[in-house]
Amino acid sequence: TTIPPVGQWPYAPMDPDAIGASAWAPPGCGGCGGKSAGALIYGLRAALPGGPWDKLPVNIGAFANGGGPYGTSCGGVAGPFFIMQLIGKNVSLDPTTPKWASAASDLGAAFHKWYCDFPFPSTDWDDLTSFKGTVTSVSGSPLCHESRSQWENVYLRQWDPTTPYDGTRCTKLPCDTVKQAVQMLNDWWASPAAVAWAPDEDFATCYGCHTQLNSEHKVGAIHPTERENCTNCHTVPAKHPAPAKKPSRKKKTVI
Protein backbone atom coordinates (compact mmCIF):
# COMPACT_ATOMS: atom_id res chain seq x y z
CA THR A 1 0.00 0.00 0.00
CA THR A 2 1.32 3.43 -0.95
CA ILE A 3 1.40 5.85 1.95
CA PRO A 4 -0.42 9.04 0.86
CA PRO A 5 0.93 12.50 1.67
CA VAL A 6 -0.27 14.16 4.85
CA GLY A 7 -3.68 15.68 4.17
CA GLN A 8 -4.59 13.09 1.52
CA TRP A 9 -5.38 9.95 3.51
CA PRO A 10 -8.75 8.33 2.77
CA TYR A 11 -11.78 8.42 5.04
CA ALA A 12 -15.07 6.53 5.21
CA PRO A 13 -18.08 7.47 7.35
CA MET A 14 -18.33 5.52 10.61
CA ASP A 15 -20.76 5.07 13.50
CA PRO A 16 -19.90 7.79 16.06
CA ASP A 17 -21.35 5.88 19.02
CA ALA A 18 -19.64 2.61 18.14
CA ILE A 19 -16.23 4.17 17.50
CA GLY A 20 -16.62 6.35 20.59
CA ALA A 21 -17.33 3.30 22.74
CA SER A 22 -14.33 1.49 21.24
CA ALA A 23 -12.06 4.23 22.64
CA TRP A 24 -12.68 2.80 26.12
CA ALA A 25 -10.10 0.06 25.56
CA PRO A 26 -8.80 -0.34 22.00
CA PRO A 27 -6.37 -3.30 21.91
CA GLY A 28 -2.73 -2.31 22.34
CA CYS A 29 -3.54 1.31 23.14
CA GLY A 30 -3.09 3.15 26.40
CA GLY A 31 -3.74 6.63 27.74
CA CYS A 32 -6.04 9.36 26.47
CA GLY A 33 -3.97 10.07 23.35
CA GLY A 34 -3.26 6.45 22.51
CA LYS A 35 -6.88 5.37 22.97
CA SER A 36 -8.44 8.28 21.08
CA ALA A 37 -6.18 7.96 18.04
CA GLY A 38 -6.21 4.15 18.23
CA ALA A 39 -10.00 3.89 18.19
CA LEU A 40 -10.09 5.95 15.02
CA ILE A 41 -7.29 3.95 13.40
CA TYR A 42 -9.04 0.65 14.16
CA GLY A 43 -12.31 2.05 12.84
CA LEU A 44 -10.71 3.25 9.62
CA ARG A 45 -8.90 -0.06 9.14
CA ALA A 46 -12.26 -1.83 9.29
CA ALA A 47 -13.95 0.72 7.02
CA LEU A 48 -11.10 0.80 4.47
CA PRO A 49 -9.40 -2.62 4.57
CA GLY A 50 -6.06 -2.87 2.82
CA GLY A 51 -5.52 0.88 2.93
CA PRO A 52 -2.78 3.00 4.50
CA TRP A 53 -4.43 2.90 7.93
CA ASP A 54 -3.13 -0.69 8.21
CA LYS A 55 0.42 0.71 8.24
CA LEU A 56 -0.10 3.17 11.09
CA PRO A 57 0.80 1.99 14.64
CA VAL A 58 -2.41 1.84 16.64
CA ASN A 59 -0.84 3.40 19.75
CA ILE A 60 0.84 6.27 17.91
CA GLY A 61 -1.30 8.82 19.80
CA ALA A 62 0.44 7.87 23.06
CA PHE A 63 2.83 10.78 22.51
CA ALA A 64 0.03 13.03 23.81
CA ASN A 65 -0.97 10.98 26.86
CA GLY A 66 -1.65 13.28 29.78
CA GLY A 67 -0.76 16.27 27.64
CA GLY A 68 2.84 15.08 27.36
CA PRO A 69 5.54 15.96 29.89
CA TYR A 70 4.15 19.48 30.51
CA GLY A 71 0.41 18.79 30.57
CA THR A 72 -0.22 20.68 27.34
CA SER A 73 -2.88 19.62 24.80
CA CYS A 74 -5.12 16.93 26.24
CA GLY A 75 -4.49 13.60 24.53
CA GLY A 76 -8.22 13.22 24.03
CA VAL A 77 -8.18 16.18 21.65
CA ALA A 78 -4.63 15.71 20.29
CA GLY A 79 -5.26 12.09 19.22
CA PRO A 80 -8.25 12.79 16.94
CA PHE A 81 -6.64 16.02 15.70
CA PHE A 82 -3.57 14.02 14.67
CA ILE A 83 -5.82 11.72 12.60
CA MET A 84 -7.52 14.78 11.10
CA GLN A 85 -4.09 16.00 9.98
CA LEU A 86 -3.78 12.94 7.76
CA ILE A 87 -7.28 12.94 6.25
CA GLY A 88 -8.07 14.83 3.07
CA LYS A 89 -10.51 14.78 0.18
CA ASN A 90 -10.11 15.72 -3.46
CA VAL A 91 -12.77 18.36 -4.08
CA SER A 92 -11.72 19.26 -7.64
CA LEU A 93 -14.11 18.53 -10.47
CA ASP A 94 -11.12 18.00 -12.73
CA PRO A 95 -9.35 14.72 -11.80
CA THR A 96 -6.20 15.83 -13.61
CA THR A 97 -5.77 18.80 -11.27
CA PRO A 98 -6.73 17.57 -7.79
CA LYS A 99 -7.50 20.09 -5.09
CA TRP A 100 -7.31 18.68 -1.60
CA ALA A 101 -9.49 19.76 1.29
CA SER A 102 -7.85 19.13 4.65
CA ALA A 103 -9.91 17.79 7.54
CA ALA A 104 -7.55 19.41 10.04
CA SER A 105 -7.73 22.82 8.38
CA ASP A 106 -11.50 22.72 8.07
CA LEU A 107 -12.38 21.14 11.42
CA GLY A 108 -9.43 21.65 13.75
CA ALA A 109 -10.34 24.97 15.36
CA ALA A 110 -14.00 24.02 15.77
CA PHE A 111 -13.05 20.65 17.27
CA HIS A 112 -10.79 22.34 19.84
CA LYS A 113 -13.50 24.90 20.64
CA TRP A 114 -16.06 22.14 21.15
CA TYR A 115 -13.65 20.53 23.62
CA CYS A 116 -13.25 23.83 25.49
CA ASP A 117 -17.02 24.25 25.86
CA PHE A 118 -18.07 20.64 26.53
CA PRO A 119 -18.96 19.46 30.08
CA PHE A 120 -16.76 16.36 30.47
CA PRO A 121 -17.41 13.54 31.00
CA SER A 122 -20.79 12.71 29.45
CA THR A 123 -22.97 9.90 30.76
CA ASP A 124 -22.85 8.09 27.40
CA TRP A 125 -20.33 5.55 28.70
CA ASP A 126 -21.74 4.97 32.17
CA ASP A 127 -22.66 1.40 31.29
CA LEU A 128 -18.93 0.64 30.98
CA THR A 129 -18.15 1.49 34.61
CA SER A 130 -19.58 1.37 38.12
CA PHE A 131 -19.26 5.15 38.42
CA LYS A 132 -22.48 6.65 37.09
CA GLY A 133 -23.41 10.30 36.62
CA THR A 134 -20.13 11.70 37.91
CA VAL A 135 -19.59 15.45 38.19
CA THR A 136 -18.76 17.40 35.06
CA SER A 137 -16.75 20.53 34.35
CA VAL A 138 -16.14 22.86 31.43
CA SER A 139 -12.45 23.66 31.08
CA GLY A 140 -12.54 26.56 28.62
CA SER A 141 -9.15 25.22 27.52
CA PRO A 142 -7.74 22.31 25.49
CA LEU A 143 -4.83 21.98 27.95
CA CYS A 144 -4.70 18.80 30.00
CA HIS A 145 -3.44 20.78 32.97
CA GLU A 146 -6.53 22.98 33.09
CA SER A 147 -9.05 20.40 31.92
CA ARG A 148 -8.09 17.76 34.47
CA SER A 149 -7.30 20.13 37.34
CA GLN A 150 -10.62 21.96 37.09
CA TRP A 151 -12.57 18.69 37.05
CA GLU A 152 -10.51 17.32 39.94
CA ASN A 153 -11.34 20.32 42.12
CA VAL A 154 -15.05 20.12 41.30
CA TYR A 155 -15.04 16.43 42.21
CA LEU A 156 -12.99 16.76 45.39
CA ARG A 157 -15.27 19.48 46.78
CA GLN A 158 -18.11 16.95 47.00
CA TRP A 159 -16.17 13.70 47.42
CA ASP A 160 -16.60 11.69 50.60
CA PRO A 161 -13.17 10.18 51.35
CA THR A 162 -14.85 7.09 52.79
CA THR A 163 -16.22 6.15 49.35
CA PRO A 164 -14.21 4.93 46.34
CA TYR A 165 -12.59 7.66 44.27
CA ASP A 166 -13.87 8.02 40.69
CA GLY A 167 -10.83 7.61 38.46
CA THR A 168 -12.80 7.06 35.26
CA ARG A 169 -13.09 10.66 34.07
CA CYS A 170 -10.09 10.51 31.73
CA THR A 171 -11.17 7.11 30.43
CA LYS A 172 -14.61 8.41 29.48
CA LEU A 173 -13.24 11.62 27.98
CA PRO A 174 -11.54 9.97 24.94
CA CYS A 175 -14.83 8.23 24.17
CA ASP A 176 -16.51 11.66 24.09
CA THR A 177 -13.83 13.24 21.90
CA VAL A 178 -13.72 10.33 19.46
CA LYS A 179 -17.51 10.34 19.10
CA GLN A 180 -17.45 14.08 18.34
CA ALA A 181 -14.53 13.74 15.93
CA VAL A 182 -16.35 11.04 13.96
CA GLN A 183 -19.55 13.10 13.84
CA MET A 184 -17.62 16.11 12.51
CA LEU A 185 -15.64 14.03 10.01
CA ASN A 186 -18.81 12.34 8.72
CA ASP A 187 -20.49 15.71 8.12
CA TRP A 188 -17.36 17.14 6.53
CA TRP A 189 -16.90 14.10 4.28
CA ALA A 190 -20.47 14.48 3.01
CA SER A 191 -19.88 18.14 2.21
CA PRO A 192 -16.35 19.48 2.84
CA ALA A 193 -16.44 22.97 4.27
CA ALA A 194 -14.60 24.85 6.95
CA VAL A 195 -16.54 25.01 10.22
CA ALA A 196 -16.75 28.59 11.42
CA TRP A 197 -14.92 29.53 14.62
CA ALA A 198 -15.64 32.57 16.79
CA PRO A 199 -14.58 33.45 20.33
CA ASP A 200 -17.09 32.95 23.11
CA GLU A 201 -18.88 36.06 24.33
CA ASP A 202 -16.89 36.31 27.57
CA PHE A 203 -13.61 36.91 25.74
CA ALA A 204 -14.68 38.14 22.31
CA THR A 205 -13.70 41.75 23.09
CA CYS A 206 -10.30 40.66 24.43
CA TYR A 207 -9.61 38.50 21.39
CA GLY A 208 -10.70 41.10 18.85
CA CYS A 209 -8.70 43.94 20.39
CA HIS A 210 -5.49 42.03 21.10
CA THR A 211 -5.38 40.32 17.70
CA GLN A 212 -5.80 43.78 16.18
CA LEU A 213 -2.76 44.89 18.21
CA ASN A 214 -0.91 42.00 16.60
CA SER A 215 -1.74 43.25 13.10
CA GLU A 216 -0.54 46.72 14.16
CA HIS A 217 2.66 45.34 15.79
CA LYS A 218 1.85 46.93 19.13
CA VAL A 219 2.49 45.85 22.70
CA GLY A 220 -0.25 43.60 24.06
CA ALA A 221 -0.52 41.66 20.82
CA ILE A 222 -1.66 38.06 20.65
CA HIS A 223 -1.41 36.02 17.48
CA PRO A 224 -4.79 35.09 15.90
CA THR A 225 -4.03 31.38 16.40
CA GLU A 226 -4.03 31.89 20.19
CA ARG A 227 -7.68 31.05 20.61
CA GLU A 228 -7.85 29.84 24.18
CA ASN A 229 -10.26 31.70 26.46
CA CYS A 230 -8.32 34.70 27.81
CA THR A 231 -10.40 34.83 31.00
CA ASN A 232 -9.04 31.50 32.23
CA CYS A 233 -5.82 33.15 33.34
CA HIS A 234 -6.23 36.90 32.85
CA THR A 235 -8.31 39.49 34.61
CA VAL A 236 -8.73 43.01 33.29
CA PRO A 237 -6.53 45.34 35.39
CA ALA A 238 -8.08 48.46 36.87
CA LYS A 239 -6.04 50.73 34.62
CA HIS A 240 -6.67 48.70 31.48
CA PRO A 241 -7.15 51.13 28.57
CA ALA A 242 -10.58 51.29 27.07
CA PRO A 243 -10.91 50.15 23.45
CA ALA A 244 -9.89 52.93 21.10
CA LYS A 245 -12.73 54.90 19.59
CA LYS A 246 -12.71 56.41 16.17
CA PRO A 247 -12.54 60.21 16.32
CA SER A 248 -15.84 61.83 15.58
CA ARG A 249 -16.04 63.88 12.44
CA LYS A 250 -17.91 67.12 12.85
CA LYS A 251 -19.70 68.42 9.83
CA LYS A 252 -18.31 71.65 8.52
CA THR A 253 -20.71 74.55 8.23
CA VAL A 254 -20.62 75.98 4.75
CA ILE A 255 -21.24 79.75 4.71
Describe the structure.
This protein has 255 residues and is mainly α. The chain has seven helices and two strands. It has helices spanning 16-22, 31-47, 75-86, 103-117, 144-156, 169-190, 204-215, and strands at residues 88-90, 100-102. The chain has a two-stranded antiparallel sheet with strand order 1-2. Helix 2 (31-47) packs parallel to helix 6 (169-190) and helix 3 (75-86) runs antiparallel to helix 4. The longest helix is centred in the C-terminal third of the chain and has 22 residues, at 169-190. It starts with 15 loop residues before the first helix and ends in a 40-residue tail after the last helix. The model has no long low-confidence stretch (mean pLDDT 90).
Question: What gross morphology would you assign?
Answer: flat
Q: How many beta-strand elements?
A: 2
What's the N-to-C terminus distance?
A: 83 Å
Number of helices: 7
Spell the H/E element sequence: HHHEEHHHH
**What class would the helix/strand composition place it in?**
mainly alpha
Helix content estimate: 25-40%
Low-pLDDT stretches? none
Strand content: under 5%
Computed Rg:
22 Å
Cross-sheet strand order for the largest sheet:
1-2
Indicate the mean pLDDT. 90
Main sheet makeup: 2 strands, antiparallel
